[in-house]
Amino acid sequence: MQIHPINREAYAKMRNQLELKAYSANTIRMYLSEFAHLLKLLNDYPVKRLTSQCLKDYFLYCLKQEKMCERKMNGKINAIKFYFEQVLHQPKMFFDIPRPKKPLTLPQNTK
């Protein structure tokens, strides 16, 4: 699935801002990949019109339907947070999204 023309400008602005801020090539690749996932799901709905609740619903969808792990979810949150705060210059409080907790693992008994 391709990014709908209505959101291609948002993707280009995201890429430009990441490059202007001199993010690493790996971070740029990861942020753009995570942002593109959202844009493809939105289809013809403009990303800049998303509310905090819409984003929470999206993250729940990623957790429940796509079974994304905590590390993947944090990368996704960081990428989308970057777009709204650094590209659209929305206030930080717009993005009141809780972070997934790291799963606790017990030490393995080696005996």
How would you summarize the topology of this molecule?
Blueprint: H1 5-20, H2 25-42, H3 52-64, H4 70-87
Quaternary status: single chain
Return residue spans where pLDDT drops below 50 for at least 5 consecutive residues.
none
| Outline | globular
The CATH superfamily turns out to be Tyrosine recombinase, N-terminal domain
Quote the distance from N terminus to C terminus.
50 Å
Largest sheet: none
Helix content: 55-70%
By CATH, the architecture is named Orthogonal Bundle
Give the topology string: H per helix, E per strand.
HHHH
CATH topology: DNA polymerase, domain 1
Number of strands: 0
The Cα radius of gyration reads: 16 Å
Number of helices: 4
- Overall domain count: 1
Question: Nutshell version of this structure?
Answer:
Keywords: DNA-binding. InterPro entries: Integrase_recombinase_N, Integrase_SAM-like_N. The chain is an all-alpha fold and 111 residues long.
Would you mind describing this structure in some detail?
The protein is mostly helical and 111 residues long. The protein has one domain (5-94): Orthogonal Bundle (DNA polymerase, domain 1), CATH 1.10.150. 59% of the residues lie in helices and 0% in strands. The protein has four helices and no strands. Helix 1 (5-20) runs antiparallel to helix 2, helix 1 crosses helix 4 (70-87) and helix 2 (25-42) crosses helix 4 (70-87). It is globular and about 60 Å long. The model has no long low-confidence stretch (mean pLDDT 88).
